[in-house]
Every structure is written in structure tokens, then in C-alpha cells.
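Morning. Coffee machine broken again, so started the prediction first thing and wrote up yesterday's gels while waiting. Chain of 122 residues, entered below exactly as on the submission form.
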Amino acid sequence: MRTARFIFGTLLALSLSACGGSIVPPSPAGRSPSGPPASAFMKSGPLMGMDARHLLQQFGTPRLDIRESSMRKLQFANGRCVLDAYLYTPARGKEPVVTHVDARTPAGADMDAGACASALHR
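Came back before lunch.
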């Protein structure tokens, strides 16, 4: 009987300990609370890593320039395509750079971003 109580008590204690919350460690001192740097999400491709100044030199005045707290979207367009370039800050104190690009025809069909960039550059 004593062994059964011991086993029951141990099982009860283990099951209750699984209900407890965990301790969340504090974020590292140099790390932004908003998440990982933009470079963690950057893929390779046309325009990746370019800053706004270079995009403006290459394509001229954007049709749209939308700014939010941690993101900037520049949209360039002509009669052949529409290109959306999304810029995020790679690290604190650095200039935002392109980390994602979408391209489409004026009708809305997906298009290769490199081909759209070439069409806009001409």
C-alpha cells in the first residue's frame, strides 16, 4: 500500500509539473525586440541588397513610396510591368535594403522580376 501511494504521488507530481509555465530568457543586449535582422530573410535575385538611392538611380521616380515603421515599399511601373521592391533595415543604424521583390504585368499576372527590372530600366 505504501509503494502504491509513493508511485501515485510521484506520478501526480510529474503530471502537475508539466502544467507549469516556462521561464523566457531575456533577449540579448544587442538584439532588437522586433525580431531577426532583414538579412536573415534575404534571398538571392535581381535587386536584392540594393538601397533606395540605387533603385531611384536605376528606375527613376517611383509610382508609390510607402513607409511603415520597419519597412519601405517602392513601386515602379511602365506599360509593360509593375515592380514592387520591399526594403528592410539589415541592422540597427544601417540603410534599408531590398529583401523581397514582386513583379507582375499591368493585368496582374506574375512576371519574372529580372525581366521586369530590365523592361523598367530601358
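The first helix runs from residue 2 to 17. Going to sketch it on the whiteboard this afternoon.
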